[in-house]
TrEMBL record:
Gene3D superfamilies: Bordetella uptake gene, domain 1, Periplasmic binding protein-like II. Belongs to the UPF0065 (bug) family. It comes from the Bacteria. This is Tripartite tricarboxylate transporter substrate binding protein. InterPro entries: BUG (IPR005064), Bug_dom1 (IPR042100), TAT_signal (IPR006311). The lineage of its organism: Bacteria, Pseudomonadati, Pseudomonadota, Betaproteobacteria, Burkholderiales. It holds the Pfam family TctC.
Length: 342
């Protein structure tokens, strides 16, 4: 295994942060897509119900976010957008269903980092390409991860935790939801940035990991903000820092890791994609609707209640660039850390 230089990875991650600004702030325009003449059918889109496939079971955070967006797209575009849950095979079944659907805009995929970024970076084989096999539309929700510790933990800052980690290499434990999950990969990036070593404890799902963290059997976790937010609000967990470059509007009193280590920036995005070959005019129309919805106060409030924030890419092509750059970053992290899936 060829080692990845920490300074190189840091510089690369800072480049990702700059590209994330384009994703969230609209730094590119819809004209970034290659021109594609819109026929009468495209102009009338949609003229029948649109299926939004969520490749995970109903009731999870991604599913709830998708349903909120589908409701607003229905209102905005005048035809029913309905969620179709297609769980199974770690999300492969639902994803493959979209890939094999006609490229007409009437079957869409909810894309989440757990499968379409992190899993794609660590799996030895994967039956699809998260960048090439789809026409990207836009991100529609985003959230950082948050570094949390038990309420009675002696650590009150990231610096406290890192100082102890340097004194006791591979003694501080962190939990994840399995090898190659976001809760595994993001602490590994932190380890690379800080030249520290933590002990990874994988679990079969979120519930047992959170349970052990609350009980003090783990030293910390780095989980996507919506998951630990209820425990942070109740005081059962302490939030030491968020992983985004800027402080989260949902936890404004919690510092960023970047305030201790400039250049550290991880943001997780839920997005919308369509089968490869979907006309650009349709992708642009969907993108523009998502952008408008992201500015609606009621939408912002609903997402905030779930520990999330609205997002819209600068253009469909900007979303493609973001997906590609994220896969490149996490592939580097997996290589440096020796993470693979059998």
């Amino acid at each position: 295994m060829t080692p990845v230089d920490k300074s190189e990875l840091s510089s690369f991650a800072q480049g990702i942060a700059r590209r994330h600004v384009l994703l969230a702030a609209g730094g590119a325009t819809a004209s970034a897509l290659a021109p594609w003449p819109a026929g009468a059918q495209d102009a009338a889109y949609p003229n029948k119900p649109v299926k939004v496939i969520v490749p995970w079971p109903a009731g999870g955070a991604t599913d709830v976010l998708a349903r909120i967006l589908a409701e607003r797209l229905t209102s905005k575009l005048g035809h029913n957008f309905f969620v179709d849950n297609r769980p199974g095979a770690t999300g492969y079944i639902g994803t493959q269903a979209v890939i094999s659907s006609p490229a007409d805009g009437y079957t869409l995929l909810v894309m989440a980092p757990s499968l379409h970024t992190f899993h794609a970076a660590v799996a030895k084989t994967i039956p699809f390409d998260a960048v090439k096999d789809f026409t990207p539309v836009s991100a529609f929700a985003q959230f950082p991860s948050v570094l949390v510790v038990p309420a009675n933990s002696p650590y009150n800052t990231v610096s406290d935790l890192l100082a102890d980690a340097r004194k006791r290499p591979e003694k501080l434990t962190f939990g994840s939801f399995g090898n190659g999950s976001a809760a595994h990969m993001i602490p590994e990036l932190l380890s690379i940035f800080t030249k520290t070593k933590f002990l990874h404890v994988p679990y079969k799902g979120a519930a047992p990991a959170i349970t052990d963290l609350l009980a003090g059997r783990l030293d910390f976790m780095m989980d996507s903000l919506p998951s630990p937010m209820p425990h942070i609000r109740s005081g059962r967990l302490k939030a030491l820092a968020v992983t985004s470059k800027a402080r989260s509007t949902l936890l404004p009193g919690v510092p960023t890791i970047a305030e201790t280590m400039p250049g550290f920036d991880v943001i997780l995005c839920i997005g919308l994609g369509a089968p490869a070959g979907t006309p650009a005019s349709i992708a642009n129309k969907l993108h523009d609707a998502v952008r408008q919805i992201s500015l609606e106060p009621a939408y912002v409030e609903k997402l905030a209640n779930l520990g999330s924030e609205p997002s819209s890419s600068g253009s469909p092509e900007a979303f493609r660039t973001f997906l590609s750059s994220q896969r490149e970053l996490w592939t580097k992290v997996a290589t440096q850390s020796g993470i693979t899936l059998d």
